[in-house]
Write a structure and sequence with these properties.
211 residues; alpha/beta; 2 domains; 3-stranded antiparallel beta sheet; 10 strands; 20% strand
Length: 211
């Protein structure tokens, strides 16, 4: 039977302050594992736009986040295979934007296409999409590439070994990411609409009151 302190260490909750430095160091190493990552380059496919993007996963930001209607799309699987990143189905659960190395989407010009670029996330669209929709101003060539197939992905770096904290990942199922995306899109559309309507209101006010 484990003591209270041993249970605390075993569960990954932390290490009591009065434990010796050597034990603290050992416990931290016990929680760590090694992963290998390398840089890949993704270019625009036939009739595609943007890029090329260089993706290099790292600890805490290694998710190849697939939002293509459920499951892992072959493009996302290939990026994960070549880079060492973790392929992740964004429809089954969610991750924070700052944990995503690259998002793989299948938007054909809808409002949703700019959500991940707006959040600063490298974005790969399997459709040959160009900047459009209410979030078009966020879709830049240095963060977005489209028309991508598995043949448009290549390795450009060597494997680098990194230590990963095995207790840092929360595997608890979360609400479907699409709900979060829809909320972001709705907010963005409202902001765009407000920006369009404001000059009209000012113009009408000027005509009515001579401003």
């Amino acid at each position: 039977m484990l003591s209270k302190d041993e249970e605390q260490v075993d569960s990954g909750q932390g290490i009591p302050d009065y434990y010796s430095p050597s034990l603290v160091s050992f416990a931290k190493r016990w929680r760590m594992s090694e992963k290998k990552y390398r840089k890949v380059r993704i270019k625009a496919g036939k009739r595609g736009w943007g890029g090329p993007l260089e993706i290099e996963p790292k600890p805490g930001k290694d998710y190849i986040y697939c939002v293509t209607g459920g499951g892992i799309h072959p493009v996302a699987a290939r990026i994960a295979e070549l880079s060492g990143g973790t392929a992740f189905d964004g429809f089954s659960s969610k991750r924070d934007f700052d944990q995503i190395a690259v998002a793989v989407i299948d938007c054909g010009g809808t409002a949703r296409v700019g959500v991940y670029p707006m959040k600063g996330v490298m974005t790969v669209d399997i459709h040959a999409t160009k900047p459009s929709g209410p979030l078009f101003r966020y879709i830049k060539a240095d963060i977005f590439v489209s028309g991508v197939s598995v043949d448009d992905i290549e390795v450009v770096g060597d494997w680098v070994t990194a230590e990963v904290d095995d207790t840092a990942v929360d595997e608890t199922p979360a609400p479907v990411v699409e709900e979060k995306v829809e909320a972001v899109v709705e907010k963005a559309e409202a902001e765009v609409q407000e920006a369009v309507e404001e000059p009209k209101k000012k113009g009408l006010f000027g005509r009515l009151f001579g401003g």
